[in-house]
Automatic annotation (TrEMBL):
The keyword DNA-binding applies. GO terms for molecular function: DNA binding. PANTHER family: HTH-TYPE TRANSCRIPTIONAL REGULATOR XRE (PTHR46558:SF11), TRACRIPTIONAL REGULATORY PROTEIN-RELATED-RELATED (PTHR46558). This is Helix-turn-helix transcriptional regulator. The keyword DNA-binding applies. Pfam families: HTH_3. Keywords: DNA-binding. Residues 11-65 form the HTH cro/C1-type domain. It comes from the Bacteria.
Length: 124
């Protein structure tokens, strides 16, 4: 499976998990619905700026979109919602919120890891 096919498959799986249509995702990304279909089938490469925007919306790291079956093993860090009930500005806010939550979790993990290492280092 090519990288474009892996990314496309993950986009489709994450989109379906959010019960979002291709048309809604196209509106969020500012592209046409047929282009979303091309992305999902791996017929077209997804530009880096769109990868970043998709990762924020899906609540994952951008590199997760490059892993086979990422949607099956990636935990959602924020919350689930029904995209059909939202407008593009809502989706933008959700994507930004998810990015903040993900960054907070990463920072908290790093802080805890640093405190653990500090305790282990002073206990010697």
């Amino acid at each position: 499976m090519t990288e474009d096919h892996i990314i496309g498959n993950n986009i489709r799986q994450f989109r379906e998990r959010l019960e979002m249509s291709q048309q809604e995702l196209a509106g969020f990304l500012g592209v046409t619905t047929p282009l979303i279909s091309y992305y999902e089938t791996g017929s077209r490469s997804v530009p880096t700026d769109k990868i970043d925007k998709l990762a924020s919306l899906f609540g994952v790291d951008a590199y997760d979109l490059f892993e086979e079956n990422a949607a099956h093993h990636t935990a959602n860090t924020a919350f689930a919602f029904r995209a059909s009930e939202l407008v593009n500005s809502d989706l933008e806010q959700i994507a930004q919120f998810r990015k903040v939550v993900k960054n907070y979790i990463n920072m908290k993990t790093l802080l805890q890891r640093g405190q653990t290492e500090e305790r282990e280092g002073s206990g010697s």
